[in-house]
Design a protein that fits this description.
Length: 319
């Protein structure tokens, strides 16, 4: 935290800051020749595809569900076809990127990758179990990154060993928190845990920059930067709906036409996934103990009903 604050203090001011500055010192950057992605949902699939297209590395895409893998790859084909049709990329480039994606349901297939990014649902026990397995399966030099939206990186890193003084694997754990949709949004939050080494940090930043992304460093604090700011805003929109301060369209329209955001908060919550929004609010609430982060009752009820937004066909809107 102190290191990044000191660096930030010396940054040039103004809008060109992100592009003109790199956090890394090249001497510390390890070479990444292959990637593993765990979870082929909306985030994992996007990360795998952009890594294949921009960083041009082979990607082993793991999901516990064959149906999710099939659905994800079908979606990748659709995105690539769209890019070709709009002449954003050539047919050869699309075929080359698609050829770099290897789907599998076996996590053991990550035994020779240089970098892993985990993007399974936001369930703490699920993530810690996966990192405990990764410490055994992945090579001893591999960077082990999580795409968590809110769970402590220090906690996830601690799951790699039962001995807290053993930093062999935990020093290689970091968060690369991509924004949704990954092919479009440039921002990636980089969060280090207490155990994370400087080389892990530098390598992760260099790799996301290779993917064409812009890194912002956040401390390992509940919600990090993006969701600490975004989620209370979305939650407040749900409270406004629930308590009758405004109707669905009024809430979305005033924010769209009044603050120049491309989507209103309820449409955005549907797009992110209401289960993901609730999970993040729960972490903010539990970790800080501050009642201002209490999830809206309506958000809980909608998740209870299975109305998760766009991905389930029903949320604040119907899809
Ligand atoms: P998702 O539900 O779309 O996808 C999760 C995928 O993980 C599914 O395909 C599921 O089959 C798979 N999975 C479940 N258990 C698994 C296991 N044990 N091994 C392998 N695969 C498994 O979720 P998502 O929206 O892609 O979110 C993934 C992560 O990214 C979460 O941590 C979330 O908080 C974070 N995130 C989400 C967003 C967003 O807007 N949705 C944005 C940034 C970060």
């Amino acid at each position: 935290m102190f290191a990044s604050s000191i660096r930030l203090a010396s940054l040039p001011k103004g809008p060109s800051m992100a592009r003109s500055f790199s956090y890394t010192s090249p001497a510390r950057v390890a070479e990444v020749k292959s990637l593993g992605v765990i979870g082929a949902g909306q985030m994992g699939l996007g990360i795998a595809l952009v890594a294949a297209q921009r960083a041009q590395v082979p990607v082993t895409l793991v999901d516990s569900s064959q149906a999710s893998l099939d659905k994800g790859l079908k979606f990748a084909d659709k995105l690539l076809e769209k890019d070709v049709a709009k002449q954003r990329i050539t047919r050869e480039a699309a075929d080359a990127a698609r050829g770099l994606l290897t789907p599998t349901i076996k996590i053991d297939d990550l035994s020779s990758v240089d970098f892993v990014i985990e993007a399974v649902p936001e369930i703490p026990d699920l993530k810690t179990k996966i990192f405990s397995s990764l410490a055994q399966i992945a090579p001893k030099h591999a960077i082990l990154a999580t795409n968590t939206s809110s769970i402590s990186i220090t906690k996830i890193a601690a799951a790699t060993s039962t001995d807290p003084t053993d930093l062999q694997a935990s020093s290689r754990v970091i968060s690369t928190h991509f924004m949704n949709p990954v092919p479009i949004q440039k921002g990636v939050e980089i969060i280090r845990g207490l155990q994370t080494s400087q080389e892990t940090m530098d390598t992760a930043i260099a790799f996301v920059e290779r993917m064409g992304k812009v890194a912002s460093v956040s401390a390992d604090s509940p919600g990090f930067l993006a969701n600490r700011i975004l989620m209370p805003y979305l939650n407040e929109a749900v409270i406004c709906l629930e308590t009758g301060v405004g109707g669905r369209e009024d809430i979305d329209n005033i924010m769209k036409t009044g603050t120049n955001v491309p989507m209103g908060p309820l449409v955005l919550a549907d797009f992110i996934g209401l289960d993901t929004c609730l999970a993040i609010m729960n972490v903010l609430h539990q970790e800080t103990g501050d009642s201002k982060y209490r999830p809206a009752g309506l958000l809980r009820r909608m998740v209870d009903a299975g109305w998760l937004g766009r991905k389930s066909g029903k949320g604040f809107y119907d899809y």
